[in-house]
Amino acid sequence: MNQLTADDLIYGYINGIFPMADADGTLYWYSPDPRAIIPIDSYRPAKSLRPTLNKRKFEIRINCDFEGVMRQCAAPRTQEDGTWISEDIIKAYTDLHDLGMAHSVEAYQKGQLVGGLYGVSIGAAFFGESMFHTVSNASKVAFHALIEVLRERNFRLLDTQFMNDNVRRFGAVEIPKLEYIGRLRQAISLKTRFTEQALEPVFQRVA
């Protein structure tokens, strides 16, 4: 395909597909069956995370360093690992962020970005893409903050694409592709906004 654009991403998400890059940078579109989602209403933080939330060990910011979060997510976890987040993907999602449709939730310590996640919002659907941490629990706290935003903004769908151990610990479940498409159609038809401003305070509350 030609260079990935923000319009390509919008078209893909509203039709239940998303891009990933091979090691050589070639882009492919995916539509898993079954599909992994995290029920927004039933999420509860792990008991082991609650002391971290209560002590407010991290400062949470939204959309302060979107590209920085993407580049941290793109960094190989080990020397042997590759990444599916190519430069073309970073450019397209950053453009989508500039349009107000892609967002990052970031965790900071002493002013340094130490964890976070990013994804795309359309209507009342949020499509989680990737997360990272350089300090223990930073990405978990960022995810907790994400859930708070989604609940406050009346989001109806949190898509996590594939099932793996990382999303399973947040309560992810698998549903058939056909059911996912139905939930997707309903969620994107609703009107809400992930955030009203580029920077908005997030108050961590232990559910």
UniProtKB/TrEMBL annotation:
It is found in: Cytoplasm. This is Leucyl/phenylalanyl-tRNA--protein transferase. It holds the Pfam family Leu_Phe_trans. It comes from Persicitalea jodogahamensis. PANTHER family: LEUCYL/PHENYLALANYL-TRNA--PROTEIN TRANSFERASE, LEUCYL_PHENYLALANYL-TRNA--PROTEIN TRANSFERASE. InterPro entries: Acyl_CoA_acyltransferase, Leu/Phe-tRNA_Trfase, Leu/Phe-tRNA_Trfase_C, Leu/Phe-tRNA_Trfase_N. Its EC number is 2.3.2.6. GO terms for biological process: protein catabolic process. It catalyses: N-terminal L-lysyl-[protein] + L-leucyl-tRNA(Leu) = N-terminal L-leucyl-L-lysyl-[protein] + tRNA(Leu) + H(+); L-phenylalanyl-tRNA(Phe) + an N-terminal L-alpha-aminoacyl-[protein] = an N-terminal L-phenylalanyl-L-alpha-aminoacyl-[protein] + tRNA(Phe); N-terminal L-arginyl-[protein] + L-leucyl-tRNA(Leu) = N-terminal L-leucyl-L-arginyl-[protein] + tRNA(Leu) + H(+). One of its GO terms (molecular function) is leucyl-tRNA--protein transferase activity. Signal peptide: none annotated. Belongs to the L/F-transferase family. NCBIfam families: aat (TIGR00667).
